[in-house]
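dumping this here so i dont lose it
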């Protein structure tokens, strides 16, 4: 029997993803305030940064504890996700995440990978 392959969320990838979300949130909030004619557009930057910082802090312990495992010709993830390797139709990267698309159209994300391309390569190797 082969050793299970584990995919663990990476703290640096988590922080990097939230940094990008904060930048987008700040710009988006400022744009909305500008469009509606608010004279204090700069407050959107503070609101966007605060929202994403709070989200990141609140969800960190949960998101960083997620582990996906390949064993017994299946990839198993959180919330009882259980995908046969033969049912994987497509794999693609989205930032620090790997998206698994099944033949039935179900989509799953392996989030916050330090090297998403290596994660895809390991899943592809397990499928062979």
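and the seq i came up w/
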């Amino acid at each position: 029997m082969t050793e299970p392959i584990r995919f663990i969320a990476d703290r640096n990838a988590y922080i990097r993803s939230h940094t990008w979300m904060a930048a987008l949130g700040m710009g988006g909030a400022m744009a909305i305030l500008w469009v509606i004619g608010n004279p204090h557009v700069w407050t959107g930057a503070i609101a966007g940064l605060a929202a994403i910082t709070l989200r990141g802090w609140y969800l960190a312990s949960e998101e960083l504890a997620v582990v996906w495992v390949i064993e017994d010709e299946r990839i198993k993830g959180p919330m009882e996700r259980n995908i046969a390797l033969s049912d994987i139709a497509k794999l693609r990267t989205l930032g620090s995440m790997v998206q698994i698309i099944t033949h039935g159209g179900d989509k799953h994300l392996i989030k916050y990978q330090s090297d998403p391309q290596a994660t895809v390569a390991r899943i592809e190797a397990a499928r062979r």
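DSSP finds three helices and seven strands in the chain.
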